[in-house]
Write a structure and sequence with these properties.
It is built from 20 helices and 32 strands. By secondary structure, it is of the alpha/beta class. The structure holds adenosine-5'-monophosphate-propyl ester.
């Protein structure tokens, strides 16, 4: 499935129009990109809106499509390339070797009592065993739920409680910028906190951080692997709509949602995106700098590239160590053709000596894809010129699993436009709607980016265990219309290019990491000194946004002295670190004696954010006490 095959499929606009007008015909064709054990009876079942079932009755398996299917043609070709600049390790697993390791892992899971439909929580650094575990779950029909290694015990506990896993797969530690980050103590604390305790914990011991084993619960991966070296574990042929995984993501409330994905639609959507959007060919190398704890890691480190028969690089390390050329060194060494990163990583590189970009042979690289947060024009221009390669922005969400807006060079060589992620992708009936009236807005007018259901294959099926929350959260925000809200603002120009203007809800995006301000507020409020608080996302030139906290203390006199203020600020940050992880830590904690609220008591977060960014806070006629704004201005160093 080369990029070239698709040219002639028509222009992107026609391609898109057909995907909406003839959904069944369009996706029936795409379904041929993967292997089916038994054919589907119906392409689409949309009898219970907004719930969507794709390829009903079809039987397939993600692990088969990612691994086994390629054995005949490329058993000895690279499949998983593991590089850790943290531990100075490089290991290449061919498709044959990857298959072996996945089967061994599947056999271990079986021995530990994991059955089809059971949940397995994966809390791991970027090591090959994490990918083995994901693929092993897919193989036996267990549902994996990967929790980002940067999250701490409280975040982990709430996910354990919601997923009620029978097994947790973890490791002694990760490593970041040369510093060992122990995982096991956080995991032990999380399991202590959780109501639903897993029967077993499978520990990969990297020898980085000594840890205590809980007798009867903690199992040693290396020892169990030895017992299953020659195991045979056939794939379970799953009905297309069985659950492949859940991945927790933040929204407006303090409780993360388990985004639930299917099997068949997921595999077809990723295979199609590899063909039309990423233009990756079998035998080539794909390099995504994301983490398996995020959706980009699921779709474009593990499943997408492997389904396409590509080798995929799994990288544990930062873009700056051992030097600022490391990413390009890997591109050269492994002849990477398709690369995927986030704007923050590029902004980090932009601060380094630009010659790092010209020291390596980048002739293999065709395109650099960037996603996860807004790509600002200067960064896009800088990296495009420095690399001399096309830069393709793409906009999507954990919920959709693959790009909503981008250009699809496998369909048509549509030019990119700086500042715009592009145009709606096939399958997405995208609209920009007025927040209150639900009417479509005109050209160059701001509206909520919404998708008219049915959602295409690969998108979330529901919220794990909570169909009602799925409908209420995503399909009930536009009055009188059953449409999916992305919770992003957007505009469209006269040529059909979209621009994303930020979130409509309280989700913030720090260095491409999606965080809920409400979770951070709840964590701060758990400190006994805090009466109430508000957290907002504030523009930052490096990370896109940072979290800024405003805290009202039960006893304001407590921070009268500057040393006391600094000490308490540190304590509150440490509380967030401990509960949620350093990734969620506010960049500053400001102490105030009141927060700007409406007369009905609603905190005016958008006004707080505007003040922090030195913008006009908008209509403040509903504010209860204008003195709150003056305090805010003073706190962030802006005069009233
Ligand atoms: O606000 C949008 C922003 O990130 C959100 C989704 O984050 P997450 O669920 O972590 O999925 C990331 C998948 C790439 C979106 O609602 N976002 C993502 N990509 C872009 C973006 N904002 C602007 N431009 C993008 N390319």
């Amino acid at each position: 499935m080369g990029a070239g095959d698709a040219i002639g499929a028509g222009t992107l606009r026609e391609f898109h129009a057909r995907s909406i007008a003839d959904r069944e015909g369009f996706w029936r064709e795409q379904a041929a990109l993967i292997d089916w054990h038994a054919p589907f009876e119906r392409v689409l079942d949309y009898s219970k809106p907004p719930f969507t079932r794709w390829f009903v009755g079809g039987r397939t398996n993600l692990c088969h499509n990612a691994v086994d299917r390629h054995l005949a043609a490329r058993r000895d070709q690279p499949a998983l390339i593991f590089v850790s600049t943290e531990t100075d390790t490089e290991r290449v697993f061919t498709f044959g070797e990857l298959h072996r390791e996945v089967v061994r892992m599947a056999a271990i899971m079986r021995e530990l009592g994991v059955r089809r439909g059971d949940r397995v929580l994966i809390y791991m650094p970027m090591i090959p065993e994490a990918a083995f575990a994901m693929l092993a779950c897919a193989r036996i029909g267990a549902i994996h739920s990967v929790v980002f290694g940067g999250f701490a015990s409280h975040s982990l506990a709430s996910r354990i409680d919601d997923a009620s896993p029978v097994l947790v797969v973890s490791a002694d530690a990760g490593s970041r910028a040369g510093k060992v980050v122990p995982y096991k103590p956080l995991l032990d604390a999380a399991i202590d906190m959780a109501g639903n305790k897993p029967a077993n914990v499978l520990m990969v011991d990297r020898g980085l951080a000594p840890f205590e084993r809980v007798a009867g619960r903690d199992r040693d991966y290396a020892a169990l692997r030895e017992r299953h070296l020659d195991a045979e574990v056939p794939v379970e042929w799953l009905e297309s709509n069985e659950v492949s995984y859940t991945l927790y993501t933040s929204g407006t409330t303090g409780v993360p949602k388990g985004v639930q994905r299917d099997v068949g639609g997921h595999a077809v959507a990723l295979a199609a995106s590899m063909k039309y959007i990423f233009c990756g060919n079998p035998g080539e190398t794909y390099f995504s700098t994301s983490d398996i704890g995020w959706v980009v890691g699921h779709s474009y480190i593990v499943y997408g590239p492997l389904i396409a028969g590509m080798a995929t690089i799994m990288y544990e390390g930062t873009p700056l160590r051992p030097d600022a050329g490391i990413l390009w060194q890997l591109v050269e060494k492994y002849r990477v053709t398709v690369m995927f990163s986030a704007p923050t990583a590029i902004r980090v590189l932009k601060k380094q000596d630009p010659s790092w970009l010209s020291r390596h042979d980048l002739s293999s690289l065709r395109t650099l894809f960037l996603a996860g947060e807004p790509l600002d024009e200067p960064t896009a221009r800088w990296i495009g010129e420095a690399l001399g390669k096309p830069i393709v922005d793409n906009y999507w969400q954990t919920e959709t699993g693959w790009p909503i807006l981008t250009v699809a060079h496998g369909v048509e060589k549509t030019p990119t436009r700086l500042g715009s992620p592009g145009m709606p992708m096939y399958g997405y009936d995208l609209r920009l709607l007025h927040e209150q009236t639900g009417e479509e807005v005109g050209v160059n007018e701001k509206g909520v980016v919404a998708i008219v259901p049915p959602l295409p294959p690969g998108c979330m099926q529901t919220v794990w265990g909570d169909d009602e929350r799925f409908v209420k959260t995503y399909f009930s925000t536009i009055p009188g219309k059953l449409v999916y809200s992305t919770f992003d603002w957007g505009i469209r120009d006269e040529d059909g290019y979209y621009f994303i203007l930020g979130r409509t809800d309280d989700v913030i995006n720090v260095a491409g990491h999606r965080l809920g301000t409400r979770e951070i507020e709840e964590s701060l409020s758990s400190h006994q000194a805090v009466a109430e608080c508000a957290v907002v996302g504030v523009a930052d030139s490096l990370k896109g946004q940072v979290a800024m906290a405003f805290v009202v203390l039960k006893d304001p006199a407590r921070v009268a002295a500057p040393e006391a203020r600094m000490a308490l600020e540190g304590e509150l940050m440490a509380t967030v670190d401990k509960q949620l992880g350093a990734v969620a830590r506010p960049s500053r904690v400001h102490f105030v004696t009141l927060l700007p609220k409406t007369r009905s008591g609603k905190v005016l977060r958008r006004s707080i954010q505007a003040i922090c960014e030195a913008r006009d806070p908008g209509d403040l006629t509903t504010i209860e006490d204008p003195g709150a704004l003056e305090q805010l201005r003073r706190a962030v160093g802006l005069e009233a």
